[in-house]
Amino acid sequence: MHAVGFSRTAGALWRSSHPGPTLVVSVLTLILGVSAGLDAGRLLLLVVAVFVGQLSVGWCNDAADARRDAAVGRGDKPIAGGEISARAVGVAAGVALTVALLLTALFGPALLVAHAVALASAWSYNLVLKRTAASVVPFIVSFGLLPSFATLALPTPAVAAPWAGVAGAALGVAVHFANVLPDLDDDAATGVRGLPHRIGPRGSAVIAFGAVAVGALAVLLGPLITGASLSLVSVVGTIVVAVIAVVGLFRAVRRPDRTVFRLVMLAALVLAGTLALSGVSVV
Fold first, then answer.
1. Using an 8 Å Cβ cutoff, are 159 and 282 in contact?
2. CATH class of 1-141
3. How far apart are CA 70 and CA 28, in angstroms?
4. Do 152 and 111 contact (CB within 8 A), yes or no?
5. pTM of the model as a whole
6. Which fold has domain 161-283?
7. Please, what is the angle between helix 109-127 and helix 137-152, to 10°?
8. 25, 41, 146, 205: which could join 252 in a potential S-S bond, CB 3.0 to 4.6 Å?
């Protein structure tokens, strides 16, 4: 009986963590770490630290939204469905946040500060900013810092190249505007009025995939500024992302569902993969 109860609780916690985004951000970190040249030990530690940090963000989100999810009948949410309490998820979020920062501290103060700022930014969105016109700011900050996680984890820490930060920030904008599209009506019913809600679904869709295009251009052209040559891999990756953006834009205008968000995350993975395969350094 205890094993069954533990399994159910663990399952509810996992589904409350927003597993899709959590895994994608962790994979992005892995790819960026490979691109930066991290050794296996540092790479594993960094990915685990970011993964646990993302768990804290997802759990914070669901705990903060518990009453709102119940009000709009979100039975797919474990808390709203009565599978686990908001308190338990909130405690898990706090524990995960602490563990993530302790793991990051092993790399030194530079990465610790960067990760702390990114997590504070994400938590501020969950607790306050998602209801304001500044809702996109945490995504710009947190995703803009993501490329620097890999470079700050090096034995000689360094901030990532500016173009890498621009690409990350652009993807953060895309993630935000795409993620809220299916929930605009439910959000409006419970008083959530972030920037996408004020702009509307069509405008948000255009911004989301416009931001994807900006990220792709940054990855394609940014290295040229530092003297790197234009590689076939970079060109092909940019074309693939452009196709994803066009498909996603048409989908978002016609039917703004979760597929739109998945397409944005796919574009992010393609861009990160392009970086790793092209051999371009993000330092």
1. no
2. mainly alpha
3. 32
4. yes
5. 0.89
6. Four Helix Bundle (Hemerythrin (Met), subunit A) (1.20.120)
7. 160
8. 205
| DSSP type of residue 276 | H
- Amino acid code (one letter) for 157: P
pLDDT tens by residue, 202-223: 888 888 888 988 988 888 888 8
Phi and psi at residue 29, in whole multiples of 5°? -65, -40
pLDDT tens-place string over residues 109-118 = 999 999 999 9
| Secondary structure (3-state) at 153 | coil
Inter-CA distances, 239 with 57, 117, 245, 246, 264, Å: 32, 33, 10, 11, 15
Q: Which residues contact 252 (CB under 8 A, 6 or more apart)?
A: 178, 181, 201, 202, 204, 205, 208, 209, 260
Closest CA to 104 of 63, 157, 175: 157
* Nearest in space to 71 (alpha carbons), one of 187, 198, 195: 187
- Nearest one of 195, 201, 194 to 68, comparing CA atoms: 194
Give residue for tokens 């970086």: 275
Domain ranges of the chain: 1-141, 161-283
